[in-house]
Amino acid sequence: MRRGDPDGAERTTLRELALLFLRLGTIAFGGPAAHIAMMEDEVVRRRKWLSEERFLDLLGATNLIPGPNSTEMAIHVGRERRGVPGLIVAGASFILPAMLMTGALGWVYLRFGSVPAAAWLLYGVKPVILAVVLQAIWNLVPRAARTTRLRVLAVLSLVVAALGVNELAVLFGAGAAAAIAARAGAKGGAQPLIALVPAIAGPAVASAVTLPRLFWVFLKTGSVLFGSGYVLLAFLRADLVERLGWLTEAQLIDAIAVGQVTPGPVFTTATFIGYVLAGPSGALVATAGIFLPAFVFVAVSGPLIPRLRASPLAGAFLDGLNVASLALMALVTFQLGRAALIDVPTVGLAVVAAILLVRFKVNATWLVLGGAGIGWAVQALGFAT
After folding, report:
1. In which domain, by residue range, is 25 found?
2. Does the residue 349 lie in any domain?
């Protein structure tokens, strides 16, 4: 019998796992923190499948591997209860509702995205999305950049990313710099960053969309993405907008908006993008690419969780990754803001949304839906230009 598994794993069936995570995937609005809170209520308090201690062990482990944290928690729970079949069923069940919804919205977007009414719905949603990302940064900064060394590292990450350094080099360079500084006990621990991130991103080269290339783009992203799911913005912008020329800035922020108004993991933004670029096949390929690494990492890292959590070097590396992730989030928010804040009303909407999120803790889902309503009202009242 496992620690935190008082009733025995054999009493949890694959059907029970599927039903629970299908339901959570259908109603899980509010971002990863809200998703994980719902899982804790279900698997610790209600079903007693895991002890609080074990749940926290798994939660800590998700921060040491790339990928979407809430999806990885679902996969971890499935693995704890029914091994490899359980991790596949739980993870796929949590992803499926959002995948179907974002795929359907991809079809709607292709068919109606250029219609003025649909365009003005997005007019109201885009500024709210920027506010949601800013709120995520606001909440994460105190925990991530908690020392002078990490704050310096965050600033350096922002500077080199703005200069065009490859985002993967920024992330892993920052992680390595923090780990080296921790091991050496050096006071100026951020200095190694510059030497560790020499790779400069090349200019954009437009190319044809193919399913293998689409799969590779999202597989690569899912394999290296640490931090908040909103860091996805930085990776997708670098690959799909700048390097490959497959999407415009406006299309990317539309995709992120769709990921926000649907429940489940933000990573199902990949489903929407895949559909827009290559139809239903593209949606399936992109979804498989971005989520496949999470299943592999959980399967491999599960038995190693106690060692990972006890390692000072692993913790220092994660600290560096986290502050670099926040720097990328801040940079891409500024860049996408130019596509979303196009007049006084959109600026005002972004400011109001930010205040409601930070000061009054209003659920982001309601704000996104409210932004869509405002966009529709602007069009209906004839204010569209």
Report:
1. 9-380
2. yes
This model's pTM is above 0.85: no
Paired with 200 in beta bridges are 165
Residue 373 lies in a domain: yes
- pLDDT per position in the chain (385 positions), as tens? 444 444 444 578 999 999 999 999 988 766 676 688 788 888 988 899 998 877 877 876 776 678 888 899 999 999 999 999 999 999 999 999 999 999 999 998 888 875 556 677 778 878 887 887 787 777 768 877 888 989 999 999 889 988 888 777 887 888 889 888 888 764 444 444 444 444 444 444 557 899 999 999 999 999 988 755 667 878 888 899 988 999 998 888 888 878 877 888 889 999 999 999 999 999 999 999 999 999 999 999 877 766 755 678 877 887 887 788 778 778 877 877 887 888 888 999 999 998 998 888 787 767 878 888 888 888 777 765 5
Residue 289 lies in a domain: yes
**What is the number of domains present in the chain?**
1
